[in-house]
Amino acid sequence: MKLSVSQELWVNETLEKVKSKMLFVAERNQNKIPYTVENGVFNDYTDEKIYWWTNGFWAGIMWQMYHVTGVNLYKDIAVKTEQKMDKNFMMPEKLDHDNGFKWLPSAVANYRMTGSQESRSRGLLAAELLAGRYNPAGHFLRAWNEWGGEKHLGWAIIDCMMNLPLLYWAWEETGDPRYRHIAVNHADMAQTCFVRPDGSVNHIVEFNPETGEMIKSHGGQGYEDGSSWTRGQSWGIYGFVLSYMHTKNESYLNTAKIIANYFIANIPVSNLIPVDFMQPETCSWEDSTAAACAACGMIELSRYVKEAEKHIYLNAAIRLLKTLYEKRCSFSPDIDNLLENCSAAYHDSRHNFPMIYADYYFIEAMLKLADRELFIW
Ligand code: GLY
């Protein structure tokens, strides 16, 4: 990545801080699969929520750290986490569109790093299960098994763009084009049904599961229907760039640009990202995951756009990351989380708290800037 001298210094300094903090964090959390913290101490989803969609991110952090440091402790924790997650394969009602989030940063990362055939099998099983959610009438991968206590057979969500790389990987790994067909059909559907003319994206789109006809959109984890849930915008940016990277279909790159342009135009003066770009001005709820994930997508985007456009996306990404670094990062070795001020959803009881995938995407983004990441997606 072409950076200025001062940017390079900042990237290296940040990575050194991450490295020295993560050794303490990994050491004392070897047996956990964290989601958030209570009083600075990681919680554990091993027993309570082994199926949770974010569980792969802990292994992902461990693989990134192992890749960049070679410290075996990270590898051991990642492998242990992946093995624990096998329980989820026997919980069909807790397997959904999120198999990519779960098994790309865990099993597939392991296979990429070590060549483990057992991990390859896990990745392929997860891909097969994801492909099984495809609805050929509407050309979409069905989202959750239930949401708000109800089954929604015809729901698709923008987040799923980040799960498509599991299908692209399975295609690349096996040569079976079924996986690519399903991923591409879903991405094409998302271009038409999720991306709005101004470059913002819907969170949920509801289809008639029998006919495939689009019925309507829903606000989902955002403020309201028609608003712009920021993490959804981030999933859209990064997800479409990834579809471009795997297929070389230029229209996906263009879609990623359109969503990124909308995102950049709406970054507040503070450079801190709200939960929804359309939430009331008086609301101070933020989502650092949206900032970190959008930064990852924009850094990748900057690699593929025309020379004259590269700085637009790279500078925006650096602006987001520097702000997180200065205002929302804790490098204290005594506190387990790295980032603060995340929100799972606008209409949730809890806001501005740490979430593990903010840490994951922040670390991935910094490693991208240093050209030292393990490619996960
Ligand atoms: N994929 C679920 C979320 O972003 O909250």
From TrEMBL:
One of its GO terms (molecular function) is hydrolase activity. Keywords: Hydrolase. The keyword Hydrolase applies. InterPro entries: 6-hairpin_glycosidase_sf, 6hp_glycosidase-like_sf, Glyco_hydro_88, UG_Glycosaminoglycan_Hydrolase. It holds the Pfam family Glyco_hydro_88. The keyword Ligase does not apply. Belongs to the glycosyl hydrolase 88 family. This is Glycoside hydrolase family 88 protein. It comes from Clostridium boliviensis. The lineage of its organism: Bacteria, Bacillati, Bacillota, Clostridia, Eubacteriales.
